[in-house]
Amino acid sequence: MSDDKVPTGKGLLQGLGVTLRSMTKRSVTQEYPHVRPELPPRSRGVIALLEENCTSCMLCARECPDWCIYIDSHKETIPARTEGGRERTRNVLDRFAIDYALCMYCGICIEVCPFDALFWSPEFEYAEGDIVEMTHERGRLSEWMRTVPAPPADVPNADPAKELGGGGVERRRRATTDDDGSPA
Amino acid sequence: MTAIEVIAKLLGCLLVFLTLPLLVGQMEHKAMAHMQSRLGPMYAGGFHGWAQLVADGVKFVQKESVVPARADRRVFELAPAVALLPYLFVLITIPVGPGQTAHDLSVGVFFALAVVSVGVIGVLMAGWSSANKYSLLGGLRAGAQLMAYELPLVLAAASVAMAAGTLSLDGIAHAWRWWWLPYQAVGAFVFFTAALAELRRPPFDMPVADSELVFGPFTEYTGIRFALFILAEYAGIVVFSALTAVMFLGGWKGPFLEHQLGWLWLLIKTMALAFIVIWLRVTYPRLREDQLQRFAWVVLVPLALAQVAVTGVVRVVTA
Lengths: 184, 319
What we know:
By secondary structure, chain A is of the alpha+beta class. Chain A has helices spanning 10-24, 59-63, 108-112, 138-143, 169-174; strands spanning 46-49, 69-78, 88-99, 118-121, 135-136. Chain A has a domain at 36-152: Alpha-Beta Plaits, CATH 3.30.70.
């Protein structure tokens, strides 16, 4: 322990060097209201609704941990296209609202939607003075769709997406037999 | 010296006293900010927040002046003046050019150090009169710290006065030579460090410890009185930087035009030292009270005595 003695004051001088170097580099502060912040891809700001995709399956409302999605819908019948055919039924959305005062931005509703009707948008400037206005109705949620960015580019050297046949390391490790039944 | 000259010199001192601390304060805002990778004031005054301290001054002036009910009223109200005015008096003796001082005293160094010590009483008054036991503790700690660091301060100054053969600040600046830099280096280090402790600047700001103890002896102060204590801190930085520059760095001596530009060389050296004061504040954690006292008595006093001994030997040998 006594062999690795640091000369007295060396740490003090190194400290001075650190602060001086820090002073000469550009500050990392972004002066927010005058400068738009640089947000990372897939930033979660607000949830947008693509109304035409929604079938009111209620999965998002059910899975939301906060119960902040309010959905009202009714069934309409569509007359048969051919004679003697069956009438089709269709869900029509009456109300789709998300209460952002309750929303915890977990993203479960977007993950679980089977019809890709919900999307993340990086917009975050929707603070209100009255908590009632923190509930966004259908019209406002559809307007947020204009701000949804294109999906970010794939990471280089990443496994392809599951729907394109990507295996993933876990799947390869868990496989104990080859496709023809012999041990891996 | 005519009355006009006297008044002009005093007004000049007052002007310096009111503007240089603000400059140092603004430098602290910006330098400290950039050292911490942020920007500092940007809005006050439009261009990079140059008017921030002006805005602060206006803010302090319009605040309510509160004196705690159980406080010793007279002492409480007088404490900021007692802490602030000594620095103005010392400014009068600092030479800004060869023979250019507001009033040069033949005992300049002695006067400067003695008057600056009166500022300690202001801190003690503030702590004692506040009717707050934490202010009292802060004030007493400040008093102990200041008394401990007086000795190395005086010894280092004595060494320079011995080397110059005079106590007059202008005389010391005249007598300064470039090889005094290594010769008095230890004394400079001791004087500057002791000055930092006298000013209660980090890393010696245990009495104040402004992220821990509210504000030590100044806790109960609001508005303009509080602003005067803060002004006293920055005025102290200016005065001690100027004293260090005059005694250890040659004061108004410079590469050329010392008669006309002596004030400029002094200003550059003072501002450089003020920057170092700010740099030390940003870099170092604060010393605990016992570490602080130990540092004064076990490190600074022996170093100062050694410097005095070396100076004495050199003077005797070269006489």
